[in-house]
Amino acid sequence: MLKLNTSKGKLIVVEGIDGSGKSTQIDLLTKWLRTQGKLVYFSEWNSSPLVKSTTRLGKQEKMFTPTSFSLLQATDFVHRWENHILPMLKVGAIVLADRYAFTAYARDVARGVDPEWVRNLYSFALMPDLVMYFRIPLDTAVERILSSRAKIKYYEAGMDLGLSKDKLTSFRMFQKKVIQQYERMVPEFNFVVIDGATSVEKQQKEVRAAVKGILGGWIGQHDTIPVKKKPLHRIVAKVEGEE
Length: 243
Hints:
There is one protein chain. By secondary structure, the chain is of the alpha/beta class. The chain has one domain (10-239): P-loop containing nucleotide triphosphate hydrolases (Rossmann fold). It contains 9 helices and 5 strands; from the N terminus they run E-H-E-H-H-E-H-H-E-H-H-E-H-H. The protein has a 5-stranded parallel β-sheet, sandwiched between helices. Helix 1 (22-35) crosses helix 8.
């Protein structure tokens, strides 16, 4: 079980299937918080240089089993946790994570890995102060993915599971399994659900409202380097009447 966050910092996480829009929202949130003078650290799933080359090779050669893939993702997480996430929480920063242990809880279990085993892998980690789950219809997610890139990736589609020989069909079948796991976690971990099918502006309003709710009265570390507002923030800020 994830441990209570007793550090000086705040841990905020976004979760959802690919194409849910969570990455756009956490990017906007990161920039907005920095314009407020907050010390913010951003961490992304599967981004540790420690396992980057191994992950790339394994995917290219289609070498992963569900368990070996799970272990490699956990290794990536541990490296980022010990070297970046936890130290930043200890100094009082706001850590924003694009995916967290819940991604493993959803994807690995959807691949058939034992749920208890997966959760034990991440039992050293802290429970986030806020988890925002971006719920979106599967058809909408597929549309977004196909409009932004040429094809769906092999493991993203769950092709390793032999669900279907057709990649798009396999993607839909696998992502349905992932969604089922996410939905089960909503009440268990008190996820704040955001409708990922609404406008970027509306979602960002809800995101900021949820974040303000956990930051009220909290005194964290402030960034000493001033950050200028970017045009993208100004659009969202204008919707909120902040300009």
